[in-house]
Structure formats: structure tokens, C-alpha cells
Amino acid sequence: xxxxxxxxxxxxxxxxxxxxxxxxxxxxxxxxxxxxxxxxxxxxxxxxxxxxxxxxxxxxxxxxxxxxxxxxxxxxxxxxxxxxxxxxxxxxxxxxxxxxxxxxxxxxxxxxxxxxxxxxxxxxxxxxxxxxxxxxxxxxxxxxxxxxxxxxxxxxxxxxxxxxxxxxxxxxxxxxxxxxxxxxxxxxxxxxxxxxxxxxxxxxxxxxxxxxxxxxxxxxxxxxxxxxxxxxxxxxxxxxxxxxxxxxxxxxxxxxxxxxxxxxxxxxxxxxxxxxxxxxxxxxxxxxxxxxxxxxxxxxxxxxxxxxxxxxxxxxxxxxxxxxxxxxxxxxxxxxxxxxxxxxxxxxxxxxxxxxxxxxxxxxxxxxxxxxxxxxxxxxxxxxxxxxxxxxxxxxxxxxxxxxxxxxxxxxxxxxxxxxxxxxxxxxxxxxxxxxxxxxxxxxxxxxxxxxxxxxxxxxxxxxxxxxxxxxxxxxxxx
Length: 479
What we know:
Blueprint (H helix, E strand, L loop, with lengths): L1 H6 L1 H18 L8 H13 L1 H11 L4 E8 L2 E5 L1 H19 L4 H4 L2 H18 L4 H25 L4 H26 L19 H19 L8 H17 L3 H18 L4 H17 L1 H9 L10 H7 L7 H19 L10 H4 L28 H31 L4 H19 L9 H30 L1
Antiparallel strand pairs: 1-2
Helix pairs in contact: 3-4, 4-5, 4-9, 5-8, 7-8, 7-18, 8-20, 9-10, 9-11, 10-11, 10-12, 10-19, 10-20, 12-19, 16-18, 18-19, 18-20, 19-20
């Protein structure tokens, strides 16, 4: 009997599952049907973590935000975030068991800047006004960064996984763009419907535009990569689909970010010195400081709102700070954040707490038609200003330091690589990151899986290329 059970255990368990699941389905309980899928993912996590990571990449563009799973007012994306949480747990278990991790990654300047950032998030979680909300913020940051930076660097140790990462993300996201465009057309491509037609995959048009801009340069790398010449038609079709999506997103911040990335492309290609760029930035800053009053008066004369479907009007509305509700509400949120920063300049109110704390810091003269006295509809709309309110001065500086170190190391690596595929790949990544660095002045979406996965993944690719692949690439070029 024992031998019979041993040799037929799979059949017996399968039979029991089918019987149990059949009864539950008859009772209109369908969750048990996911057990085989969960078991498969569990086995994959321990036996083939790289395959699980690539599955998460594939699932990210199609993930859904399930609000009923909200903790402290913060939603969860399924199936990606539970999977990333599992990857994080496995990472810590392996770290405890093996007691080692590649020191070349740990000692890399980008890693050190990220660890400093996480350290400060942890410190300000301890001092938070709302500890549960801040703890959820910390944990969600950890599963994004651990999964797609620390585990990501090991995934990209295999150079082929870099291109797999790109394809597995851009193709399902292209499906989302097609779905959104069709949905938009059914509503007459109206500006109002353009705010929500990307649901349930994305919350609104701003994050939709940010995601498309973030991966837009990658499409050109894939299209002109000789390795994928037979897929060139597919690549150009994806470029056409994404371009349509960007235009119809009515995401003004996304448009600006793509233009800046386009300018940066020529900076890299023409090998313009950093000192020249710094001189331009200093000159621009001095110009703003000297003529700030006149500039503000000029902007206040612009009363073009971001309404209707006329793209020219949307572009003109970018600088409207007199009547455009979206622009004015952003200014209201920023001013509130600065007032919060003035009250708690060192530790802030706690990570993730801005949307629950900013209401009392609003000024009556700054309120708009879309403002709320309860202060419960959104964040500070800035990756740079929001942390000032939530984590104090160091909160903002730690993020800025990450950006500076990424571009410093990325640019140094770019100029050291020989002309070829790897150099083009790295440039596409730097341009993609640039779109979000620019976008971060006007919005903050790093708590969204569709932005966080490519953002931290791109940074992990830079580090992996610097640590694991640079030597081979330089050796090949010298032969």
C-alpha cells in the first residue's frame, strides 16, 4: 500500500484537487483554481528565479490595481507586487543561508547611493506621523528595488536577459496602448475620456504617458539593432503604436520629457563636454533669477487651458499658470509640500504620508476647482518636492544623489565602450531614464509597478554592464 501511494502520489493529489475544486466551483468559489498556478510560481522561484523575474516583467504592463487590497490607503498591483514580495523574501532567505552577495555590486557607487536612500526611508519611517502608511511605503520600495535592482543585476549577468527584458516589457505594453487607443476612439478621442480610457491597466493619462516615454527610446534601439533585423517591421509598428499612444495620452509632461531626451541624444552623439552643459545650466539659472518677475507676469497672461482635442492648445497650456486647473493644482501641492518641509525640515511627516497630511497646509488663495479640503486625492506631483515634505531635506537629496551617480557612471561607461550594440543599448537606457528624471519634476510614479520595474531595471542594467560585461566588450573591441 505504501509503495502504491508513493508511486501514484501525483495522480492521487491531482484527483483530490479536481474533486475539491469541482465542489468549490459549484459553490461559486473560484480562488482554489489558482493553486496549481501558485505552486508553479513557487517552484519557479526556488528552482528558476530568472524565469520568474522574466515572467514578472511580462505581467507588469498587464497588471491590475486592486484597490480593495489597499493598506493605509495604498493599492496593490496584481499579480506583480505579490510576486515581487515573494522574490524579496527569497532574496533575504538566500542571503541568510549563503551569507554572501557579489561585493562588486555592493561596493558599486550606484548601489551605495541606493542603500543610503533606503536607510533614510527607514529612519523617517520610525519618526513618521503615520507609521503604518510609512511601513507599507518602505516595504513596497524594498520589493521594487530588491527585485529589479539587486536581483536584477544577477539576472542581467546573462547579457541575453537584457534584450529579453526589453521585449517582454514593450510587447504587452504595446497591447495596452492598442487597447487604450481603441477604447479612446469609441469615446471620440475626447480629452475628457483620455484621462481614464487606459483603465484598468493604468490609473490615468499622466502615468500612461510617463510609462510610454520611459521605454520609447528602447524601441529605437530594438528597431535599429542588426541582431533583430528580421523583427524590424514589428519594431517599427511598435514605434508607430507608441507614438500614437504618446500623442493621445495628452500627457504634457511626457511630451516635454521626450523632447529633452531627444536633445540629450545629440549631447552624447556630439560628445559635448560636461563643463559646457554645466555652463548652460548656470547661465539658465542666472537668467531665471534675474528675470523671474517678468517671466511670471508673462506666464500669467497665458490663459490657454488644457481642454479639447487640439494638440496646439495642449502645448500652449503647458505654461499657463493663470487659469489651467491642472497646473494651478500642481503649484498648490508644491506650496503645501514646502510649508510641510518648513515645519519638519529634517525628518518630514513620514514616507507616503503627504496625501493624508497636506490639507491643513493649503492656502485659500492657492485652492483650485479640483482642490480638496480633506486632502485625500493624490500626492505632491514631484519626485523631488514630495520627499521634502515626507522625509525632509535628506529625503530629497538621497534621490537626487542616485540620479547624479547613475548619470555619472552611465556616461563614463558609455564613453568607454566601443561603437556597437552595447553602446547603443546603454544610450537608449540613459535616454529612457532621462524621460522619467524630467517627468519627476511634475509627477511621481515610482510607487507604480509599470514605472518602477523599468526604472530600477534600467539602473540594474547599467551596473551589470559596468561590473560584468565591460571587460568582455573592451576585450572584443581590441581584437
